[in-house]
């Protein structure tokens, strides 16, 4: 006997939509078949509604440990489930940072009692933790996260020697946040000198500009090719960066690319009305970039969609531009945005 049978489903899976019934037992799908007439404790007629596999979000910030005034594993995994995300990979820039194997193990232990969905965690790279990286358990960590920009303290990897070691010796796939830190710093100084206290979110995409992204992404790709490393570049934002990646199916690629839903949804015109609410790193850029990202997704240059879910308090986001943190809370809304694109014949 099954616990539940869902009748008349439209199942979306592996590039196709087909009508079928689904039988569930002990919280697991036991059978998918055109007609299931077996005995069940409960039968529900879905009446043609879509049944979609749970999403995997490979880039989220759930803020635990150390930043739990913004969110925590329990609350954010629950939000993910509400948005159809049943598995997630979480970032290492918490407090303390996940730059040691000891701290990585502690996060897994924490999630084992608090997460409402499937989970894994990225080990974080730094300028000085190559020995920790070398001895990581590849069956535990999801990947090695390297902040090549947009971070501070030990999480910013800005030493070319450290980057060489990471790409040469990491037993994990290297996943990167790419913005050239020197270019961003120079732009920040330039714009502050020009605008002072009038600096606002409308300048964000000019400070964290196209060139800052390209300089860093091209460096990451060059290093991956130099050492024959596995590389995945997170949240690409520019048309120019698309020349760095190869179209085709993900199987067999050693260098893969990702886009986030907000970079496909917004362009720079929305800074005027949304301000710091859409301040994120890398920045939301021009309409030409937004359209290029969608085209790259459709032509298989971009392989993965994520959210980069990054919650902050309302009070934090309502500070001045220079003080307001970067990031948007999106794990609950990624599927909704993608469904909008589907109904608009964009995807």
List keywords for this structure.
347 residues, alpha/beta, Urease, subunit C, domain 1, TIM Barrel, 2 domains, 12 helices, DHOase/Allantoinase_Hydrolase
CATH architecture of the largest domain: Alpha-Beta Barrel
Q: What's the mean pLDDT score?
A: 97
Poorly predicted regions are: none
Q: What is the number of independent domains?
A: 2
Total number of β-strand segments?
A: 14
CATH topology group of the largest domain: TIM Barrel
The structure class reads alpha/beta
Q: What would you report as the Rg, rounded to the nearest angstrom?
A: 21 Å
What helical percentage do the residues reach? Answer: 25-40%
The H-level CATH homologous superfamily of the largest domain, spelled out, is Metal-dependent hydrolases
The CATH class name of the largest domain reads: Alpha Beta
Q: Number of helix segments?
A: 12
Strand content: 15-25%
Assign an overall shape. Answer: globular
Largest sheet: 6 strands, parallel
> How far do the termini sit from each other?
40 Å
Question: Can you offer a commentary on this structure?
Answer:
The model has no long low-confidence stretch (mean pLDDT 97). β2 (16-25) and β3 (28-33) form a beta hairpin. The longest helix has 18 residues, at 210-227. The protein is built from 12 helices and 14 strands. A 6-stranded parallel β-sheet has the order 9-10-11-12-13-14. Strands 1, 2, 3, 4 and 5 form a 5-stranded mixed β-sheet that branches. It has a 3-stranded parallel β-sheet with strand order 6-7-8. The chain is of the alpha/beta class and 347 residues long. It has 2 domains: 4-50, Urease, subunit C, domain 1 (Roll); 54-343, Metal-dependent hydrolases (TIM Barrel, Alpha-Beta Barrel). It has helices spanning 73-82, 101-114, 130-134, 160-169, 181-195, 204-207, 210-227, 261-265, 271-274, 287-298, 314-317, 334-343, and strands spanning 4-13, 16-25, 28-33, 43-45, 50-51, 55-60, 85-90, 118-121, 123-124, 144-148, 174-178, 231-233, 255-260, 304-306. It is globular, with a radius of gyration of 21 Å. Helix content is 32%, strand content 20%.
């Amino acid at each position: 006997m099954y616990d539940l049978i869902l009748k008349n489903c439209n199942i979306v899976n592996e590039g196709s939509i087909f009508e079928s019934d689904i039988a569930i037992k002990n919280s697991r799908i036991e059978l998918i078949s055109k007609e299931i007439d077996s005995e069940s404790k409960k039968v529900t007629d879905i009446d043609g509604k879509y049944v979609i596999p749970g999403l995997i979000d490979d880039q989220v910030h759930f803020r635990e440990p150390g930043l739990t005034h913004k969110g925590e594993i329990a609350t954010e995994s629950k939000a993910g489930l509400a948005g159809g995300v049943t598995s997630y990979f979480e970032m290492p820039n918490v407090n303390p940072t996940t730059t040691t194997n000891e701290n990585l193990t502690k996060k897994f232990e924490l999630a084992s009692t608090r997460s409402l969905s499937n989970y894994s965690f990225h080990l974080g790279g730094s300028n000085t933790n190559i020995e920790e990286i070398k001895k990581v358990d590849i069956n535990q960590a999801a990947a090695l996260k390297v902040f090549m920009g947009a971070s501070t303290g030990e999480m910013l990897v800005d030493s070319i020697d450290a980057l060489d070691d990471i790409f040469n010796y990491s037993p994990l796939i290297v996943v990167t946040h790419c913005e050239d830190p020197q270019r961003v710093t120079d732009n920040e100084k330039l714009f502050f000198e020009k605008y002072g206290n009038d600096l606002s979110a409308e300048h964000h995409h000019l400070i964290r500009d196209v060139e800052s992204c390209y300089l860093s992404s091209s460096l990451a790709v060059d290093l991956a090719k130099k050492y024959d490393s596995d590389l995945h570049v997170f949240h690409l934002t520019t048309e120019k960066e698309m020349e760095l990646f190869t179209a085709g199916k993900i199987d067999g690629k050693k260098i893969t690319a990702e886009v986030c839903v907000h970079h496909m949804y917004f362009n720079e015109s929305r800074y005027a009305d949304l301000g710091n609410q859409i301040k994120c790193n890398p920045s939301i850029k021009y309409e030409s970039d937004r359209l290029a990202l969608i085209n790259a997704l459709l032509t298989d240059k971009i392989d993965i969609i994520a959210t980069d879910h990054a919650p902050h308090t309302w009070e934090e986001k309502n500070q001045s531009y220079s003080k307001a943190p970067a990031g948007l809370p999106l794990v609950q809304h990624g599927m909704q945005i993608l469904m909008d694109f589907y109904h608009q014949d964009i995807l």
